[in-house]
Structures are given as structure tokens and as C-alpha cells.
Amino acid sequence: MAKIDFLGKSIISNYHTTVEHHQLIPQPKKSVTGKISLHDNLIIHGDNLKALKALLPTYSGRVKCIYIDPPYNTGNEKWAYNDNVNSPRMQEWLGKVVDREDLTRHDKWLCMMTPRLKLLRDLLSEDGVIFISIDDNEQHHLRMIMDEIFGEENFIVNLIWKSRQITDSRNKDKVSIDHEYILCYAKTTETPLRGKYSDKSKYLNPDDDSRGPWMSNSILGLATAEGRPNLHYNIVDPRSGRVYSPPPNTGWRYSKDVIKKKIDEGRIIFPIKGDRPREKKFLGDLSDEFTGFSSILRLDVGYTLNGTRELREIFGKEVFEFPKPSSLIRVLLEQASEVDSIILDSFAGSGTTAQAVLELNKDDGGNRKFILVEMEDYSDSITAERVRRVIKGIPNAKDEKLRSGLGGTFSYFDLGEPLELAEILSGKNLPSFADLARYIFFTATGEQIVEDKIDEKSRFIGETANQVIYLLYQPDLDYLKSTALTLDFVEHLSPSSKHRLVFAPVNFVDQDNLDEAKVGFAQLPFEIYRLAQ
Fold this sequence. Notes:
By secondary structure, this protein is of the alpha/beta class.
């Protein structure tokens, strides 16, 4: 497989593993929910690389569909490379706006995308699919880096979307770029898209055939007489004796024996005059209610102009440049998600993905969940505000569903400080018990924690196939005195056939007593990787 090289690649190839876990700080006043929760629909404000890492303990391997719309790197977006990688080369790039004159702009873009794509892959379920909007500026680079991260065997399709409705005649080269791409990869090769619904309106039963509705289907093939001589033969109407020969460039679709069987079964329709015979294709013979999904998206998915009008209707004015229409995102979600899927957009922009998810739920009664991540300051005023408005309803909207409201909830979080255990144990940057439990359990085991099983009173945080795990931690008490592992705590642990492991900053129980009770001690912060290793 050909591989792409770029400045900084060797430095950022494993950068995603060094990114610290950050706290997610709930913001009830910005949320639309009765009870803020990480299992609600989510809108997260903060750097998307750090936010994706913060989501791993809860959502690793659970996201069914990812859609992202990253900067296309045209030189007009005014984005800056801000990942604080410990390298002189990367440090030189920090905070500098990337424009068309920047000779390293493609390298910077790939350095920005690579660690994010790796974390997105970790979040994707085994049957998950990722869609990425892009244009010609980086499409070829993106395809190569996706082949490396996801595997070229997991490439599904490069969809073409007609984004411009009206031809642009202002270009000096006299070419109007009217399309963009949506690159699609699977997590594994066992992930087909759904396809489009078969059009059953063409199936009728004018002759009251006992086999039910049917449609007339061509029996012409695609092969020349030189290429497939067995598909070039004469078909004889057994009633009239009329002989039909195939076009020399196509032949028939079926072999002579298959056609004879179809004639015997009354599946071949012979014309009264002219034309060629065709076959009856019965509705009952369809093996699937879906058929092929075109790589060129149909025009009714909307243009950029429709996305602009949609936002104008929601806000009463233009608030965002070049938004995607929700109808486009909806088509993608229909192809790669189920009624209970988790859908992630880590370049959330104006919040189009959330609206598409809520519309689908409204239409089919589904319980899909969205996770949006947006780092810009408009995360609350545009991204979340759009979702608030479509949930509650927009009185003057033309669309009846938007007027009455799509319903739903979401919990809003800000990205907080990193979970640095050394600081936590010194009394700084104190997370909640659940936040620290989630972080420790995932880091130590590589498995997701079961949120509703966490019991702060008993200090139980979860279990694996071989271990029952506890955490001694309380943010409002003296750590070394109140969260030490003591003999009293050991004696009151719930009995279990599995080995019991306690994470704590200090241990006051001798090894003989721990061995007798079948309890292990993992000292924080030094042994957090104990199970993973």
C-alpha cells in the first residue's frame, strides 16, 4: 500500500495516546434536560482532540456513525494549528493562521487530522461507519491517510455531492466547482451501507398472475459475441415461432438453458410486434427491500444554499457560512445508523447533525443519540442555540415539524482541566468521584465503565472478567487520612469469587491480610496501568 509522508508525521503518529484525559464539566443552564448526563445527547465545548479523548471511557467502541466536516484547507478558513506537540517544528506552527500562501499548510492539516482520526476510529463500533466532507484541496491526502488509519480494505465509497445550485461564472479559469466529496470508510469490512428503498410502485399485476405483482425487466446483457459467445443465441417464441436475436454488442443476460426454464415457467414476455422479449420480475422474488445507493447523491439532498436558508429560518438571519443542509446529513445517517445508534460529529459547526438526528427520531420514533463537539466560542450561541430552538419549536418556520418542535434533550459540557492524578492527590483540580472512576477504570482495563453500577458509598466502580474494582477517593476529604485502604474497609468488602482490586493513594493493610482476603492494592497514581499491562 502506498503511504503518504508529510512534515511532522513521525512526531504525531502516536500523539493521540499522550493526550491527557480531561474532565467534562456540566453546564446545566446551557442544557435542555431534566437531569444532565453523559448518556444524554451531548454538546461539548472545547478542543475536539481533547474532547474525543475525554469521551473514550464512556463511548469507546460504541459510536455507530460519525460525520465530520473539517476545514477544507482552502486557505480561506483562517484556522490555526494548535496541538501543543512537544517538538520545535510543531511549536513553530502554534497559533499561526494557515492561509493559501503557507507552504506547509497541507502538512499542518494532516498533522491536525491524524490524531483526531485515530481517536475517532477508537470510538467507532465494529460495525460503524465514518463520513468525512471534503473538497479537492485535501481529498487526495485524506484518502491516503484514511487508508493508513482505517485500512484501504475498509474504504466504502467516495460520494459526490452537488453543493452549488447555480453555476459560478466568476472564476478566471471558467470552471464552476459545483461539487464536493463525502469520503466513507468502515471500521471493519463487514459494514455495508443500507442502500435505497426499492421502488415498488412499478410492480403491478395486470394479468392476475398467481405469483403476484411484477414488473417488466430487460433481459439484455453487457457482453459482446467475442467476449461471451454463450450469451449470443436466438430466442424463439413458442407460440408464434418468431425468432429474436440479441444485439451484437450486448447479447442476452442469461444463458440459453436459463431462458428456456424462464419460458417454461411463464416468466418471459414476448411482444406482439417489434421490440424484444423481456422478463417478469416478481415483487415476491426480491431478496431485499433495498437496492443500490448511488455514489452521486440525488439533488433532493439539498445544496449549501438550502443549508443557509435553513439556518436563516431558525435564527432569523445569517449566522454561519456555508452550512450543510440537514437533509444531506439525514441521508448519510439513514445509510449507516439504526434507531438506537450513537452518532458523533466532532466538527459540529452550526449543529446540523443534531437537527438531522432529531428529525429522524421524530419521524420514526427512534432513540438515536448525538454527540457534538465544537471548539469555537459560538458553541453555545449558534451550535447549542440551534438545537434548543429546533427542540422547542420555531413559531414562524415553514416546516410543520420545526414549528411544533422536534422534541428531545441535550446535556451541555465544557472541557475542563486534565485529570492529572498527581495534582488530584495533592488536592488540586478535584473531579467528581464518577469522573475519576470513569478515567481510572478505562485507563486500567481498556473497558468502558457501566455508569449506573458506580456506587460512591461502597466505592465500587466496576468489574472485568477477572476483577472487581474499587476506588478510594472523596474530593471533599483529606486524601491520605480518609481514602487510605484500611483493614476495616477490606473486612466489609462484598464477597466475590473474583479477585478484588482497590485503587487508593495509600495502604494501611499488611500483605498477609490482603492475601488472605484475596484483595489487591493498586497505588494511585503509580499503578493506574496495572490491569492494562
